[in-house]
Each structure stands twice: as structure tokens, then as C-alpha cells.
Design brief:
alpha/beta, 3 domains, nine-stranded mixed sheet, Arc Repressor Mutant, subunit A, 16 helices, single chain, Rossmann fold, 353 residues
């Protein structure tokens, strides 16, 4: 029985969490002692699972070979390519299932936020992911709806590296609507999980996977979060690990900004512009002062009406005094310059600059 096969045995036990494995190792002293122990310091259910897994040791080697054929690697802390950031951390995972590439050496930032983000939050996440990847910063997130997926799409659009930490088995795409992003990350980035293949998206998986998102990053950035957003758990893990937390500020009274604004009130760094993240990472920016876009008087009349939340065409025409036909032509010109985006039938907003 090899060490890797013994780790896989533990990884395949459904009710054994990382905490359970750690306690067993602490009590018995070694992985081999856990394998050989007749009585384990666990619940009766966990004891029965362990005994069942040991009855067919040849199955473990066969399943590992099957994983390899499926393009899934099983790496443990003793493997040379296991992420150094996680190996140094006592509460990190003992093993990972991997599709694609593990995070390479280099600076990394976790971009996280609400699944039910606003259009503004989605655009900010995508822009930050694109900006950081363009500067050579790896983007770590969770493949979730909303902020996570947008940040990872932005990173891939800039031909950068992004890694998704899953709360399911690494062979399970959740949510299913992110199938295209999942495949792109497998081909050009990475997908990792500490849960065995086939594991479903159980609610208690996600707070635990957040610690790995944080563990793989040098800094955690919360883009948009409500008062009870799961991304705040990632921020808590960052504080426990001694890492900086930054937040994108939101409008006072906006429910989707309560989490970020509270983090800032508690001392988190403020992301007023993308370069603020680079500075937190210790990367010199040499940033230049931004200038307002040069606009004609007609364009200014439309530009002043727009904000970070979508505005309807009727309202834009009413506020600017422009007829519908002229407003549409101006909005098209602004959209072609990357200053405005249409986000639905007759609804527009300013893009972050």
C-alpha cells in the first residue's frame, strides 16, 4: 500500500472532513498508523466507512488509474507540485483533485463576491479580473454565479491564469450554466477541489472551500457583497491567515454593498481603482492620472445622465433633452469607444474606467 493510495482512501470516505483526518493523524501519529488502526478516534459511521474502504485495497490503485485516464490528478502535500502556499498552512487541505493546471509560482489575488450581484458588480469583477491578469497576477475564485464567474472570465479574456476552487467534486460543474467557463478553465487555467469526484454541491462544502480560495491567494478582494454574503467568510479566512482584505466600496443604503462597506468600516483596504490591488500586492504601478474622456456637447448631455446602474432610454432622453433617434446614435458612439454598455433592451450604464 503506497502513501498516495492511503491518502486517496481517506479522500474517498464520504463523512470524513479535513478536520476529522487531522484529528485522527494527531491522535495516532502518522498516516500509516491511521491505515492500520483497528479502532479509530471517529464516530461509528466513520469507523464503518474506513473499514469498508480497507477491505479492497486493490480498488484504490485502480480508481487512481481511472482518474488519470479522465484527466484528473490526485496530489497530496508530499507531492512536489502541491501548492506551497497550502503546504505551509496547518489548516490547509491534505490533498487536492485537479483538472487543468495548479496555480504556478507568482502573485495571486482572490476575487470574490455575491452570486446575486448587480450589473455594476459584475462589470467591476470582470474588469478587475482582466486588469490583474494583464499585469501577470493569477486570479483565484470559486466559479460561482455573479462576481466569481465574471472575475474569472475577465482573467481568461486577458489570456491570464485563473484557478477555480470548487465546492463539489472536480468533475462536477456547478452551476451547470457555467459549463463553458468550466471547460475554458480546464483548458487554460485550473480547477481544484478537496472533495472526491462525484461529490454534489452540499451547503457545508462551500464555507470550507473558501479557505482554499484564500489560501491560494496573497490578498482577498471582495467586489460586491450583501450583509450575509458567503464571500465574507473568505474575508474572515484571510484575516485568520494574516492576509490583506480589500473591498470595492458601494453606495450607502444599497443592500448589495452592505458587506463591502462594513468590511471597509472594519479596516479593509479600499479599491478605488484597480491599481490599489497592485499596491496591496507590493507591485509598483507608476500609475498615471486619469483624464476625463473628450466628448462633444451632445455626448456630454448623454454621458452626464449615465451612472453605474442601468438607465432606461426614455429616462435618458428626458434628462438629456435629446430625441430618441439622436440619443441612440450617441449611445452607439459611446459604446464603440468603450465608455457605455447596453445591458438590456433600452438600458445603458457607464463602464468602469
Amino acid at each position: 500500500m503506497t502513501e498516495r493510495e492511503m491518502w486517496y482512501w481517506l479522500a474517498s470516505l464520504p463523512s470524513w472532513s479535513g478536520k476529522t483526518i487531522g484529528q485522527a493523524l494527531d491522535r495516532l501519529g502518522s498516516l500509516e498508523a491511521v491505515w492500520n488502526a483497528r479502532e479509530l478516534p471517529v464516530t461509528p459511521l466513520q469507523q464503518e466507512e474506513a473499514q469498508r474502504g480497507r477491505r479492497e485495497p486493490e480498488r484504490l490503485a485502480a480508481e487512481l488509474e481511472q482518474l488519470e485516464r479522465q484527466g484528473i490528478r490526485f496530489v497530496t502535500r508530499s507531492c512536489p507540485d502541491f501548492p506551497a502556499r497550502l503546504r505551509r498552512w496547518k489548516d490547509g487541505p491534505f490533498f487536492l483533485f485537479v483538472k487543468g493546471r495548479l496555480p504556478p509560482e507568482g502573485t495571486a489575488a482572490a476575487l470574490v463576491g455575491s452570486r446575486k450581484c448587480t450589473e455594476y458588480g459584475r462589470l467591476q469583477a470582470e474588469e478587475l479580473g482582466r486588469f490583474l491578469a494583464g499585469k501577470g497576477v493569477h486570479v483565484i475564485s470559486g466559479l460561482a454565479l455573479g462576481v466569481d464567474g465574471a472575475a474569472q472570465r475577465g482573467a481568461l479574456q486577458a489570456s491570464g491564469y485563473s484557478c477555480a476552487v470548487l465546492g463539489t467534486g472536480v468533475d462536477v460543474c456547478y452551476p451547470a450554466s457555467h459549463r463553458t467557463l468550466y471547460r475554458e478553465l480546464e483548458a487554460r487555467g485550473g480547477l481544484v477541489s478537496e472533495y472526491a469526484t462525484g461529490s454534489p454541491p452540499l451547503p457545508y462544502h462551500f464555507p470550507l472551500r473558501n479557505r482554499i480560495i484564500c489560501g491560494l491567494a496573497d490578498v482577498v478582494v471582495v467586489v460586491e457583497a450583501g450583509r450575509k454574503s458567503g464571500s465574507l467568510i473568505t474575508a474572515d479566512w484571510a484575516l485568520e491567515q494574516g492576509k490583506d482584505v480589500l473591498a470595492v466600496p458601494g453606495r450607502m443604503g444599497d443592500p448589495m454593498s452592505q458587506g463591502c462597506n462594513r468590511l471597509i468600516r472594519q479596516g479593509a483596504g479600499i479599491v478605488a481603482e484597480p491599481e490599489d490591488i497592485l499596491e496591496a500586492l507590493g507591485i509598483r504601478t507608476g500609475k498615471k492620472k486619469k483624464t476625463a474622456p473628450e466628448l462633444s456637447a451632445e455626448e456630454q448631455s448623454i454621458w452626464r445622465c449615465l451612472g453605474t446602474e442601468p438607465c432606461g432610454l426614455d429616462w435618458i432622453c428626458q434628462e438629456s433633452g435629446q430625441p430618441v433617434s439622436a440619443a441612440l446614435m450617441i449611445l452607439l458612439r459611446l459604446e464603440m469607444r468603450g465608455l457605455v454598455r447596453q445591458v438590456g433592451a433600452g438600458r445603458y450604464l457607464r463602464l468602469p474606467r
